[in-house]
Specification:
Blueprint lengths: L1 H15 L2 H5 L5 H31 L2
Keywords: Membrane, Transmembrane, Transmembrane helix
């Protein structure tokens, strides 16, 4: 799953930073920032869920 996510992210970043995208008048910076914010948000949600799951497992009788 991690490999699949890494490949998808690297493919997307490569697509966003391609010269054809820059020639269209759109720079890659806003897209890279947006992808970074989404990735940070996903990591934060995953951390909260993992913490919640670990807490629940330790409180089970």
């Amino acid at each position: 799953m991690l490999l699949k996510m890494t490949v998808a992210l690297s493919t997307r970043i490569q697509e966003l930073t391609s010269p054809t995208r820059r020639e269209a008048g759109e720079g890659p910076v806003p897209y890279v920032i947006m992808v970074t914010v989404i990735a940070i948000g996903a990591a934060a949600i995953a951390a909260v869920l993992i913490t919640y799951a670990n807490t629940r497992l330790t409180t089970l009788p």
